[in-house]
Design brief:
DNA-binding, 6-stranded parallel beta sheet, 6-stranded mixed beta sheet, homodimer, alpha/beta, 335 residues
Chain lengths: 335, 335
DNA sequence: TACTGCGATCGAAGCGCTTCGATCGCCGGA
DNA sequence: TCCGGCGATCGAAGCGCTTCGATCGCAGTA
């Protein structure tokens, strides 16, 4: 292995000079710096991450805790991850992947053994057990989602309440009177996943405000689940003319099933989807949607973490305003 | 931070004894071990990962390089990742996520700075530039996919040639005479992605062998792309009665579009999908499929890496035999 | 001319761990 | 009784880096 001493010898300086040239923490004459850089290149030197971590108490690694559940939408998670890893590399950091399976202990392990400098947590629950661990370890952290008790932790997410409201309002303004929310899997609600409840409440509040008849139903993420969900919906609330779908996994099944039931979109049924933008075009009809800004949130989470590491950040809760884009799946109801 | 010396003091032994108790590399009396374990628990000791890496030249981290392309199927990638991270934790290792964007330099960086002990590479191309880096660094590595020149690197993948053959053969045996392959995005072929070509060749070989008229078409992963692909297909090869779909992203679009064109599955058109098992049920009809064993491959990749780290493994190429499951999307052609 | 201040560089300590080579009892065999 | 051998433990070196406090030479000032 090529060490800093090898570089120092090659460049005719001391190891500390090489270190300072690399970190820029002390001034180095231009000439020396160039000689060092040349040596580094010639020898193919890469600082040993462990040694660096030990000496500086900085690993340049961010930990990201992702859910492995199937009832959560996988592509959405992947988009977060992609955005986060890309953003992290922009700050010269790497991303370590943890799974929610490990629970609070996983977070403790990683933070306590200084494997990562900060932790980003996805799929946050209302009463989130990882919050107290993070807090007691005084570990820089960013939650994607908002627990009931964020304590002093930073949070970032789409403003799901506003999103739910926007979706319902859009249907109301088109003149729909009976609408429904096709929500995430029941398991998501049971788990108290923070975004699901917030969306639901926003949806209901807007429905009430606009005097709509509104029904909310969770939906298992499978074709059968969707079919059952629709059966139930039309039995309990016939004449429904507008659907808000907060469950990316069943979107295509929904369209297939509506078509099978001779319901045309948007003539017989309007649909507002809640999903990342790149999912609205993969169906026969371009979907009116409230965007889930996965890329922004992922990137923002990393930025917030980096700012905490730089010491220039107090805890903050950032809720991104929803953006609704009207496309071809919504229209006034036929009356 | 709680250090090994704190534990040693608390337990009334020397730091090295604690280390040996933890690693089991020398025998420690039961009594001492218990005292040490108690101290560890009481103090909440976690070994410092950097220090450990520095002293032992082992990080207990595996690097996984994933593609971020949209033209690759995202859920499939995610399933690999999930399987790999879970398997890695089973060996007390963590997973560091790299993206293909960083190219060979990313691999070099991680290996040379001893951030990870081994590298697992997804989305391997026929002439894979990362192979030589990996090899010259003498870094334990596992490729998911098989490049033209695997050199001494281990590879694991589904036997895509056999899979292509199995899919075509199944249609042949049902009596179909004109079939088609709806393949991945053209970009995937252009990039020389290893699995796409292997599947195609297997498909064509079997078609030839069974005297089928067979056409292969790449397909952009969008509704429009699929529609264009079908248009082209039916223009160039009308009377096609069987489809092999090696493009998970367009499965639901395909079913929707066939239905829109009054083609019933399987009465008018048989479909063999190539996809992970959990994707066959999300459509109106359960799909006959050749399984992509994402979980097995991901887990196997980790196991192979661990075996290399343990020093008990020479390079090997493991191709998993395809498993075709007949479901409801295939039937003899109407004639 | 003597001194101050500053930019550039060096040397050494130390981060927390692993590991190699002692050391120290203690037991069994001669 | 003495000694060899072995299990249990200790001490110290060292992994490769960062960083603090010197040192050194030189330009500018009094």
């Amino acid at each position: 292995m090529v060490t800093i001493s090898d570089v120092a010898r090659d460049a005719g300086v001391s190891p500390s000079t090489v270190s300072y040239a690399l970190s820029g923490k002390r001034s180095i004459s231009a000439e020396t710096r160039h000689r060092i850089e040349a040596s580094i290149r010639r020898l193919g030197y890469h600082p040993h991450a462990g040694a660096r971590a030990l000496a500086s108490s900085r690993t340049n690694v961010l930990a990201l805790v992702i859910p492995l559940r199937v009832d959560l939408n996988v592509p959405v998670v992947m988009q977060f991850v992609a955005a986060a890893v890309t953003a992290a590399r922009g700050y010269d950091h790497d991303l370590l992947l943890l799974t929610k399976d490990e629970g609070p202990e996983g977070v403790r392990r990683v933070a306590a053994s200084a494997i990562a400098d900060a932790v980003i947590v996805m799929d946050v629950e209302a009463s989130e057990p990882r919050v107290s661990v993070l807090q007691s370890l005084r570990c820089p952290a960013v939650l994607i989602g908002v627990p009931d008790q964020p304590r002093d932790l930073s949070c970032v997410d789409l403003d799901f309440a506003a999103a739910g409201s926007a979706a319902a309002t859009q249907l109301a303004e088109l003149g729909h009177r009976r609408i429904a929310l096709i929500g995430p899997s029941p398991a998501v609600y049971e788990r108290g996943t923070s975004y699901a409840g917030r969306f639901l409440r926003g949806f209901q509040a807007a429905a009430t405000e606009h005097n709509l008849t509104a029904r909310a139903q969770p939906c298992l993420p499978s074709y059968e689940g969707l079919r059952a969900c629709l059966d139930e919906l039309f039995r309990r609330q016939p004449e429904t003319t507008g659907l808000v779908v907060h469950n990316e996994a069943v979107l295509s099944a929904l369209l297939a099933e509506l078509s099978a039931r001779q319901l045309r979109v948007p003539a017989d049924m309007s649909i507002v989807a809640v999903c990342p933008d790149d999912m609205v075009e993969n169906h026969g009809v371009a979907l009116t949607s409230v965007a889930i800004p996965t890329a922004e949130v992922g990137q923002l989470a990393v930025e917030m973490a980096m700012r905490q590491l730089a010491g220039v950040a107090q805890p903050e809760i950032r809720l991104l305003s929803p953006r609704l884009t009207v496309r071809d799946s919504t229209a006034p109801p036929r009356s």
